[in-house]
Amino acid sequence: MRRRLSLPIVLFACGLAGCAAFAPPQPWEKGTLARPDMQIDRPPLEAKATQHIYTSKEGAGGGYGVGGGGCGCN
Amino acid sequence: MNRIVFLLLCAGLAATGVAHAVGVGEAAPALALATAGGEPVALDKLRGQVVYVDFWASWCGPCKRSFPWMNELAQRYGASGLAVVAVNVDKKREDADRFLAATPAQFTVVYDAAGTTPAAWAVKGMPSSYLVDRSGRVVMVEQGFRDEQKAGLESRIRELLAAR
User: Fold this and answer.
1) How confident is the model at residue B163 (pLDDT cuts 50, 70, 90)?
2) Shortest Cα distance from A8 to chain B (angstroms)?
3) Which of A9, B39, B49, B157 could form a cystine bridge with B35, CB 3.0-4.6 A?
4) Residue B25: CB partners within 8 Å, gap ≥ 6?
């Protein structure tokens, strides 16, 4: 019984150790993420226009989070 | 069985550990790189000088804005013992070359495409700059580049240069 319970735990622990091998990119490795075509949001001017339309047509605005490059410096 | 699970969990957690960030008052970690011309630049060779170490990349906007100011620094305080060393961390040298063609640098630029130096210094953001005093101690750590930082940094540099 004890053995049957432990196996999933061992697998889970192995999986967790596997997660540790994945390291998020370091600040100096974000060159690719900082590329304009890697941005989640639209170009700033377009995004501003879109938001303006939302605000004026739907009375809705905000909730877009924080935009900016991948360099963690904004 | 439980012991194995525990060890695996420990190993997993240990692997997530991060490098220790360089703090104020600590000895500056090693920096030994080369310029575009192949000239070696080592921080311990610059002992006795005040060194402004800056980590930059071509894809970082604030870095671009910091260059004219670093040029000014090198021009104004170079003769009185300030060395400005800018470490480029671009993966591709062409990116750095294009950046430097548009934003000329009148200070020492060294290259670390492998990223071992920023890893050793545990750089937290781009750009990051470190002010190192004549004895090789880190006196000031700045992340990002904002105009408000300029005055404080410059007065600190002047202080360090005055303290012989």
Assistant:
1) confident
2) 10
3) B39
4) B137, B138, B139
In a domain, residue B63? The reply is yes
What is the residue-averaged pLDDT of chain B? Answer: 87
- Give the CA distances from residue B66 to residues A27, B86, B95, in Å, rounded to whole numbers and listed in that order: 17, 11, 17
The answer to whether position B153 is within a domain reads yes
Q: Within a domain: residue B11?
A: no
Quick check: is B132 in a domain? yes
CATH number for position B102: 3.40.30.10
Task: Give the tokens for residue A63.
Answer: 């909730």
- Nearest-CA residue of chain B relative to A71? B126
- For B93, the domain range is 25-162
Per-residue pLDDT of B47-57, as tens digits, reads 899 999 999 99
Q: Which of A10, A20, A31 sits opposite B59 (nearest CB)?
A: A31
Residue in A3, A21, A28 nearest the CB of B123: A28
